[in-house]
Amino acid sequence: MYANAVQELIDELGRLPGIGPKSAQRIAFHLLKLAPEDALRLARSITVAKERVSWCRRCFNIAESAAGGVSPDDPVECEICRDSRRDGTVVCVVEEPRDVVAVEKTREFRGRYHVLQGAISPIDGVGPDKLRIRELLARLDPEGITEVILCTNPNIEGDATALYLSKLLKDLPLQVTRIASGLPVGGDLEYADEVTLGRALEGRRAVGE
Amino acid sequence: MSLYREEAVVLRTHKLGEADRIVVLMTGGRGKVRAVAKGIRKTKSRFGGRLEPPGHVSLLLYEGRNLDVISQAETVDHHRPIREDLDRMTDALALVEAVDQVAQEGETNPPLFKMLTGALRVLGEWDPRPALLVGAFYWKLLALEGVAPVVDGCVRCGAPDTVSFDPVEGGTLCREHRRGTPVEGETLRLIQRILGGQLAAALGEPPGPTVSTVSHLATSTLEAHLERRLRTLHLMREVPGPGLRFTNLA
Question: Residue A43: is it exposed, middle or buried by C-beta count within 10 angstroms (0-12/13-18/19+)?
């Protein structure tokens, strides 16, 4: 129907998550109407991101190498793993790289991370062996880790992952902690569900200490 | 657009768009229902953690064109002990996975709903956790589906003396027709007790080789009936999995 190059662009855009054939067509025509430098800037940022970004060899967060790209023999470390001011004895285990960003925004945590790249979800066929658990275990001893904070989402998959890890780590000489659950700041108590409110009560603390 | 009220158990959820989820529910009055919970992934969502599997909830929904929309949710039982123990959670996920496979949208199935809520209540309340719960639930589920196993004689010829159980045939077989797993009288008696009105007593059986054979046979038979593998038990039963032990990596 369309010229080959245009059809190819529509097909490629249509492969992106959440983009259907109509949206792909609309984006493709938007790109065609753009000034060449704008369209090329987008193309360049995709190329650069693909060349430079890989998984951190230590924590499996997103890591960026210097210009020149990532070579498979020399995987890079992320900024957090490279930062020597970070407390290497505490590791915060999260599901996805975007969770690292969420925790970092709190400015409350100065340790390192480990990204599992998913959570146990048996119904979706994701078992423990599909996560970066083996790599986490391999880090514990050499890095002298003394505390593992289980910072997975407080939903059924995240809870299953945290329970699994706590079972796996319980006999090791380190402290295993789970992030607290509670009420969101600015939320309404009357809308809190029973599990959240129950956990919030359980995790209450003395005021003014 | 009509509103309706339903009690339901959450079977599973899928992410939808930015902050919504599709929630698959087993309802008491409408069978399996797929409904949208808008904004549920936001921290300030009024649904909070109510719509997580295997929560038992009371819902107000309105009918949509394709999917119904959840308007309000109240917890009936949040099964907290299940959420705090990996074995209980695995069992609960195994139950909801099987119900998700068996239940059909638009087909009411009140006995299945009742059976599921009953099983989840037992799983949350009994201490120690009943080792046979998932197996017994699967056998009952097969019976409810109309494919109860034949365990009082050979499924092919009716001979009273049987030596094996074949999940595909759905019953025991005599020496002449034997196929599948060799079984002993004790195993068959336990299955008969589950299906024959002595469920509570059977659930009290302590873990052991007979309980594990009965559970294994139940899983294989349900898988043969559904013509697909049930993932939860296969993925989760070996915790920690071989090769995942710390000592193996040292």
Answer: exposed
